[in-house]
Amino acid sequence: GIYPKPNINYYVNPELEGKNSLEVFDIVVQICKEVGLKIMLDIHSIKTDAMGHIYPVWYGLDKFTPEDFYKACEWITNRYKNDDTIIAFDLKNEPHGKPWQDTTFAKWDNSTDINNWKYAAETCAKRILNINPNLLIVIEGIEAYPKDDVTWTSKSYSDYYSTWWGGNLRGVKKYPINLGKYQNKVVYSPHDYGPSVYQQPWFYPGFTKESLLQDCWRPNWAYIMEENIAPLLIGEWGGYLDGADNEKWMRYLRDYIIENHIHHTFWCFNANSGDTGGMVGYDFTTWDEKKYSFLKPALWQDSQGRFVGLDHKRPLGTNGKNINITIYYNNNEPAPVPAAK
């Protein structure tokens, strides 16, 4: 195949000189295996393009078709099907689009239309699971969903519930993902951000955790947890600790995650994510201790404060201070499941 040239600092990583992108990824997988880290694959773009995630759907760029998308997912699934370092597949990053103005947008209903993300996700998931039935299938939402008695043909902004790209899972209530015999592999995954990314209408003066829950979280995704429809993973959340509204939103969401034992992945590690910042500085070595201290209470730890890895044999990390999931449950620690309602 044709592999894009990786963007690597060879002064820091001389061992990667001459490696193509797939070879570099194989090295990353091996390192993760050695330290007890698990990997969730994610398709940010259907073509190699650092800005490809701006395109709203999983087909169309450079004439890529839905079938190309499915086959690509099958290919990488087959390549790593015997390596349990990879445990999940987030099918597509942030399907989105505004039906009232965009020609191309992602929707969610019971049709087989080319832009129906639900149909594409079900089709892709089944083809992946036919190859590796052990993978978790992580399914994000869309951007906009029509209000009651409104069809997708409406060109009126006021006819839709709109939220973050990938964060709108309202359609699950009426049209849940159906994977048949693989249903227990479904994980719904919204993305949620604060006003440093965009000043959404629910960030009005005096917003609270309860107002965020009522205005955004519950109608878009929290009901999935509350009604025990399926597992929930907040696939992206994070931002700057600005001492103002963005930090206020981060604190509310962090506390909501802790209180309800919600699974999550924080955005992001690297510093060069312009509207959120990272967990490390631009040297990729120095930790942002303030942000880490803020996030740490929401990370999975046992009653002794040891971090828990998902590998059944290897403890997490190399410092000998953490454990794995087997040790955790052998010590009769509680399962990290959502709080009962």
UniProtKB/TrEMBL annotation:
- Taking the record's annotation, the residue ranges forming a coiled coil are none
Q: Which PROSITE patterns match?
A: GLYCOSYL_HYDROL_F5
InterPro entries reported for this sequence: GH (IPR017853), Glyco_hydro_5 (IPR001547), Glyco_hydro_5_CS (IPR018087)
Catalytic activity, per the record? Answer: Endohydrolysis of (1->4)-beta-D-glucosidic linkages in cellulose, lichenin and cereal beta-D-glucans
Which GO MF terms does the UniProt record name? cellulase activity
- Entry's EC annotation: 3.2.1.4
Q: Which biological process, per GO, is one annotated for this protein? A: cellulose catabolic process
For this chain, the family text in UniProt reads: Belongs to the glycosyl hydrolase 5 (cellulase A) family.
Question: What protein is this chain from?
Answer: cellulase
| Organism (species) | Caldicellulosiruptor bescii
Its taxonomic placement starts with: Bacteria, Bacillati, Bacillota, Bacillota incertae sedis, Caldicellulosiruptorales
